[in-house]
Records
---
Amino acid sequence: MSFKAAAVQMCSGVDPVKNAATMVRLVREAAAQGATYVQTPEMTGMLQRDRAAARAVLADEAHDIIVKTGSELAREFGIHMHVGSTAIALADGKIANRGFLFGPDGKILNRYDKIHMFDVDLDNGESWRESAAYTAGSEARVLSLPFAEMGFAICYDVRFPALFRAQAVAGAEVMTVPAAFTKQTGEAHWEILLRARAIENGVFVIAAAQAGRHEDGRETFGHSMIVDPWGTVLASAGATGEAVIIAEIDPGAVKAAHDKIPNLRNGREFSVEKIAGAVAGGVAA
């Protein structure tokens, strides 16, 4: 059965209370447009590069304002409310980059902790070490919902196609990729990665993004996007500023894509053998 999905684009700051208020306003806008599934970006609750300052305001799941607000919004509008992720304080002093899906009754249907940590060194001195503060997740899930089978990922996970393939093989029809992509990597790879994950698995991809220059000084790429199983961009947002984008999702299009190009069925087991190549002065034995 078809449903209306919304991706909410934000520019989260360092204050979770203010970010929660922004989330409320934008989710209300999405619900008013008929969305029954609404997704917010990675780190909805706070983007804060100062780790000491971040830890000072973090809460555990039971006391987190974004978790509480997400539950209330789901119940108020009778929607499936997906907090793309928010930072959750763990008992060992580290942090989880954790997404939550709430059902229309406000109860948590699924948690997903980001599996792949963004530990990179980019051009112009931009460097990130997510693993220094965050505990990586280790479990992928496909959730059966009344309207679709849904898989979960967060931001940097999109660069690991095996995660998406495993969920597609398990029956996922819709993949979710809330993100806070850097401007530098987003300009190079954001759209092509989302479209590739949709095409190679024959699934819808919904990706709510952070956008613009944030209070902590970072700049994120924006361009929240909803992509269909053929790789067509159904809806997209701009590079900066808040936005709500909406698209009609028909899970029947997943079957149609799989019937046209049945690569999930046609995949074969194979081995990889590493062999010596040519060497200077002759051919390797």
---
Amino acid sequence: MKERAINPYALWLSSIRGVGNQTIKTLLETASCAEEVYHMSEDEISMCLVDKLKRRSDATGKALSICFSQERDPIEEAENLRQRGIGFVSMEDDCFPQRLRGIPDCPYGLYYIRDLPPDDVPSVAIVGARNCSSYGREQARAFAEKLALNGISVVSGMARGVDGIAGRAAAGAGGRSYAVLGCGVDVVYPEENAELYDILKERGGLISEYLPGTKPQTKLFPKRNRLISGLADLVLVIEARRRSGTVITVDSALEQGRDIFALPGRVSDALSDGCNFLISQGAGIACTPETVIEHFYGVNESGTDLFEQKRKERNLRREDLPGMEKVLFDVLGYKEIMEPDFLIGRMESILGRHIGVEEFTSCMLDLQMRGLAAEVGSGHYKGVG
């Protein structure tokens, strides 16, 4: 993961209790940035808010809260957050997820652990019933794994059932797996997915708009769902009842202009009611993972999957590689992000001998020059092409 610098003033503004997205956005209609808000007087802040809030007392109360918070040290708080392994990005940062900028009620800031979904990689939100059937579990696992292996990010809510299964399968396949939480990013919920939380903390990403330490509350999850769909290009519904939290995510996705796909099920199964209804309303029919993959990568005139064709062409280039580079190429795989120690260990296991850092670096540079590998962030690599 590439460590991003935290804007201390944006963090400060985002963490003032009782000051939400709308109030922040109202302030930034006058102030150019969070740092400018930090240096404003109580009267200046009140003047910014008084025209937008129905009652003058509300504007005065929020202005007092903001001014009281100016006694805090933003730089110290940003450093404390960084030391806890928690990142923060705001709409003022270039690295804020581009997919979220255009959604209704876009959050001003996001807290995250490890990483955020990259803007230039296709992303699918896999959602569904908590009490899913064996059919739902099997399909959630199969879809997530195949999408991850084909370089597509998988986003979920880490809830029990479909969400947790999909997140675990995507991470297990070595792909990009992210969870948007209805609590602080430092809070494990539900506890049955504690293992998945630890996996995403090391090899995926945990994301929340709520302050670290925020406990899970029923009222927070529906609002969280708009970020699950917002961070995706497409929402895939595995199993859902007609009236469920999954439907809230679908409603958000439709409002955001996201594509919807649903897994068809038997008409007699209540857990398939939501999916079958969505299909009847025009959602894409997700009969196989390839259906979703094809949506992103398309097919050529002969009907061949373009992504599969691209991978075959890339593998042909493998034949021109020297022996060591060929081993590293095979270990690296395709679009899976890996650390050098892991790659070296795999190479040593295959070759049966020690590999030094210099030898590894030389091989990696050769693959990069050939356009077959790329460094992601600091010290992580993936296959490209």
